[in-house]
Amino acid sequence: MTAYVIFDVEVTNPADYEGYKQLAAPTVALYSGKYIVRGGQAETLEGDWLPKRIVVLQFENVERAKAWINSPEYSEARALRHKYAVSQAIVVEGI
User: Fold this and answer.
1) What is the residue range of 86's domain?
2) Helices 62-69 and 72-84: crossing angle, nearest 10°?
3) Given the DSSP bridges, would you call strands 53-59 and 3-11 parallel, antiparallel or unpaired?
4) Residue 88: strand, helix, or coil
5) Positive or negative torsion for Cα 52, 81, 72, 21
6) Number of domains in the chain
7) Cα 81 from Cα 95, distance rounded (Å)
8) Contact (CB, 8 A) for 57 and 34
9) Which of these, 95, 83, 94, 90, lies nearest to 17 by C-alpha position?
10) CATH code of residue 82
11) Cα–Cα distance between 81 and 86 in angstroms, integer?
């Protein structure tokens, strides 16, 4: 079943965060993932959620999504994301 990794990211250092984006993209592709949303304008329709930067990735299943986020290939990019941003992430099954 298709799975989506959804990030809400507050970038604290935009200049250095660019390095994260450059490193992360090839690792997503390596795990057969693809970007569905990458930081477009977000508008709250209900509730009090005020997302900063939304990123949605699609993978073939939850196992593949978890393999990507915990992979050695993504580890350097992940460290940069943790250094230059504050983020929340979930994985959810799709249809």
Assistant:
1) 3-41+50-93
2) 70
3) antiparallel
4) strand
5) positive
6) 1
7) 29
8) yes
9) 83
10) 3.30.70.100
11) 8
CA distance 7 to 23: 16
Identify the burial level of 88 via C-beta atoms within 10 angstroms of its C-beta, where 0-12 means exposed, 13-18 middle and 19 or more buried: exposed
User: In which residue are the tokens 């390095």 written?
Assistant: 19
Please list, residue by residue across 50-63, b when 16 or more beta carbons sit within 10 angstroms of its beta carbon and e when fewer do: eebbbbebbbeebe
DSSP state of 48: S
> Nearest to residue 77, comparing CAs of 24, 39, 29?
24
Question: Under a CB-based contact definition with an 8 Å cutoff, are residues 23 and 95 in contact?
Answer: no
One pLDDT digit (tens) per residue for the chain, 95 residues: 999 999 999 999 999 999 999 999 999 999 999 999 999 999 999 999 999 999 999 999 999 999 999 999 999 999 999 999 999 999 999 98
The partner residues of 3 in beta bridges, in order of sequence, read: 59, 93
